[in-house]
Recover the amino acids of this structure.
């Protein structure tokens, strides 16, 4: 029995007690998946898993207030569940977690860059053990999966769901890279280079707020301070400064809460490398508080509490 | 005052009402002179300070931001400065990745009796900001610069990982 069959059977046995189970199905073309809300056994037939199932389905959980929901999670997604539980934004008894042991997901951006032609119409996709054969406009291209894996998968220390009611698949011994080359390269730049980089990158930003809407930890919805106070924190001026201000707001509000699921960067329609900011903030949180969001239950987010003596904060420095 | 510093830079100060504002007042009463670049904003407690106040000030063109509160364990409201300490430490550590020089932001604790220490803090911080010079703007400075930016952005990404 394949992993998918095991998962379908597990979901089938819980379907009666749940409002719905959130998984993935094939999307608008063979190269894309899309979230699937399973309410009947007929819906269940369309469920898929695998490297194309990139979406963090936990984003939907906070929208289903008071209802009992099932959700399929990869290792990274399970960290979002733990973080939501730690912040009392969902109740443990209101969610049934179907955990997967994940082999990694693709980055659609990397696939686009690796294909010889603009993938206008993808005719078919064959997923092998270590490669991906994509047929576009009559031409077949074989890509190595390792070359198109999402950045987060290269440094993933939790490929298997760390919280679940049912765990599907064979456990991994994770051997992640210590850090991402692009992150290190960016951090080594000078202040002036970084400023110029963000000035240019943020001039592409259209303030669609897709990054905010895709984030599982963003639950303020209509009351988000980026758009709803009087006086406004951010003006409607679409300049790099205002666009960067929004990122400052978002990252400040995610400090100690971001689980690096990468949905923000994936959602960005103009490919802004938002994760550069978030990975850096998380490094600081780990350095000062020795905590990583979403890795352990019963962990109070560090900025929601304090200690009288802080070991790693030197405020008497000058 | 130094003869070469003719131009005053814009330094914003967020001071807690009880200890730090009192400390600044003590410095004034004792006639300690300090550079006049600092523009003080009084808040009830350093815990009231949202890190975004500092960020907004810097993005709006402040050359430096100074925050001062009661010493830990001496907060007028008992715990406010404990929260402030955590938040402001995270902000200070975050600024480098944005390209903003983290030396333009500092937070410290000055009590109401520490007039001389206040003089030292303000003089020292103002000197540091003058050394760093006016802050670079996040937005292009001239029409020509805006146009250059638009052209560069249109040509594609320069991110190390995004091509």
């Amino acid at each position: 029995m394949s992993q998918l069959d095991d998962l379908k059977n597990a979901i089938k046995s819980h379907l009666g007690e749940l409002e719905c189970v959130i998984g993935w199905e094939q999307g608008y073309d063979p190269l894309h998946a899309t979230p699937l809300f399973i309410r009947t056994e007929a819906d269940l037939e369309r469920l898929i898993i695998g490297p194309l199932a990139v979406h963090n389905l936990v984003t939907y959980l906070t929208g289903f207030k008071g209802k009992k929901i099932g959700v399929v999670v990869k290792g990274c997604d399970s960290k979002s569940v733990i973080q939501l539980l730690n912040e009392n934004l969902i109740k443990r008894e209101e969610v049934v977690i179907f955990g997967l042991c994940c082999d990694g997901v693709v980055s659609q951006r990397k696939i686009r860059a690796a294909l010889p032609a603009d993938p206008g119409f993808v005719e078919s996709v064959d997923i092998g053990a270590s490669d991906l054969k994509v047929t576009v406009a009559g031409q077949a291209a074989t890509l190595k999966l390792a070359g198109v894996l999402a950045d987060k998968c290269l440094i993933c220390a939790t490929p298997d769901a760390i919280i679940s009611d049912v765990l599907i698949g064979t456990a991994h011994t994770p051997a992640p890279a210590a850090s991402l080359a692009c992150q290190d390269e960016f951090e080594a730049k000078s202040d002036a280079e970084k400023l110029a980089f963000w000035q240019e990158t943020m001039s592409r930003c259209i303030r669609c707020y897709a990054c905010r809407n895709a984030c599982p930890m963003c639950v303020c919805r209509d009351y988000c301070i980026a758009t709803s106070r009087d006086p406004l924190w951010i003006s409607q001026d679409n300049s790099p400064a205002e666009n960067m201000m929004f990122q400052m707001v978002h990252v400040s509000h995610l400090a100690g809460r971001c689980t690096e699921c990468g949905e923000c960067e994936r959602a960005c329609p103009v490919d802004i490398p938002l994760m550069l900011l978030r990975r850096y903030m998380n490094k600081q949180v780990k350095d000062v508080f020795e905590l990583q969001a979403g890795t352990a239950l019963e962990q109070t987010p560090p900025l929601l509490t304090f200690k009288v003596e802080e070991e790693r904060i030197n405020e008497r420095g000058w | 005052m130094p003869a070469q510093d003719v131009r005053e830079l814009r330094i914003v100060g967020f001071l807690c009402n009880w200890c730090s504002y009192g400390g600044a007042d003590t410095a004034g009463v004792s006639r300690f002179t300090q550079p006049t670049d600092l523009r003080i904003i009084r808040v009830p407690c350093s815990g009231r300070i949202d890190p975004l106040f500092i960020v907004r000030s810097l993005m709006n063109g402040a050359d430096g931001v100074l925050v001062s509160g009661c010493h830990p364990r001496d907060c007028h409201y008992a715990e406010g400065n404990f929260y402030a300490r955590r938040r402001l430490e995270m902000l200070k550590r975050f600024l480098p990745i944005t390209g903003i020089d983290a030396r333009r932001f500092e937070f410290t604790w000055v009590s109401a009796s520490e007039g001389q220490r206040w003089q030292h803090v303000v003089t020292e911080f103002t000197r540091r900001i003058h050394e760093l010079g006016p802050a670079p703007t996040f937005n292009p400075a001239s029409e020509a610069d805006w146009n250059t930016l638009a052209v560069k952005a249109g040509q594609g990404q320069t991110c190390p990982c995004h091509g």
Observations:
- The CA atoms of residues 82 and 297 of chain A lie 6 Å apart.
